[in-house]
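From the pipeline queue, job 12 of 40. The input is one protein chain; the requested action is below.

Action: predict structure.
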Amino acid sequence: MPAPLAPLWFKSSYSGGSGTECVECVHTSEGTLVRDSKAPAGPVVAVRSHTWQSFIRHLKNHRP
């Protein structure tokens, strides 16, 4: 059986432009994983699909 593929992390479009607040995400079958791009081996926050979609909707509706 082939080894599972490594997740493809991407930088959030909501990360700051200064390079100090970079958030990376990866979508899974159950939701989204979020981590600090400066500490890829550090902790990961798991968010279920419904909660992630609500979060993104809120961001889109409250842009400055």
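Job complete. The helical segments are 49-61.
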